[in-house]
Amino acid sequence: FVQAVVLASDCDPRWLTKHLPGLAASRNVPVVSVKDGKKGSSVRLGEVFDIKTAIAIGIKV
After folding, report:
1. What is the mean pLDDT of the chain?
2. Which of 7, 15, 37, 54 could form a disulfide with 46 if both were Cys (CB 3.0 to 4.6 A apart)?
3. Structure pTM?
4. Secondary structure of residue 14 in the 3-state scheme
5. How deeply is 9 buried, as exposed, middle or buried, from its count of CB atoms within 10 A (0-12, 13-18, 19+)?
6. Above 90 in pLDDT, residue 37?
7. Taking Cα atoms as reference points, which of 19, 17, 15 lies closest to residue 42?
């Protein structure tokens, strides 16, 4: 099961991730939103996971 969801706040179009907070809440999974004004949060989130960009990451432990 997914333990947490990390979302990039600058996703465009927004509908790509709009449903994820509600879905996570229905399964009692916390959602963390990443913001980075300089590079863009999707670029920053991708860097954390060693990929080019990411709009959403599910963490499974």
Report:
1. 92
2. 54
3. 0.85
4. helix
5. middle
6. no
7. 17
